[in-house]
Amino acid sequence: MGRSRYIITEPQQAHFMTCTVVEWLPVFTRPATVQILLDCWQYQRQQVGLKLYGYVILENHLHFIAQSATLDKCVASFKAYTARRIIDHLQAKRAEHLLQRLRFAKCAHKHDREFQFWQEGVHAELILNEAMMWEKLDYIHANPVKRGYVNLPEHWRYSSAANYAGLGGLIDIDGW
To answer: DSSP H helical segments within 17-169, as ranges?
Structure first.
């Protein structure tokens, strides 16, 4: 049996996860690259039953809380699809510096691709109870505030904080 980079325990339960761009490259500084992530989540919610409880997208990584009977496959599919689409976008925009770094970051043993976009794997942390869920949602939503990008969590455009504040976000989420 092959190893899995996406170890998800108890997929019927929510998990807190982080995905990071290789070398912490600032790729999510443009709406078009962020939209690729949002569109993928929306598709997964509508077509494969992903429950997305919260998220934040920063310039070089994202955090999210989700659950699905096939969460490991959802995460693998999310990373593969978004990596391909973002690389296509960067090529169309001739973002040569970023592409050069993504090419360099590709592991030497990988012969099936030219670029590496995401760091390998995902650290999935099982949400054990309601208190932990709110702790993780607060952590996610406070990220842009701690970095000094905004004063209030709901002011960060690329986050579910606005959904929880009753303001509506860029995509629908599954409320907790």
So the answer is: 31-47, 71-92, 96-105, 130-146, 161-164
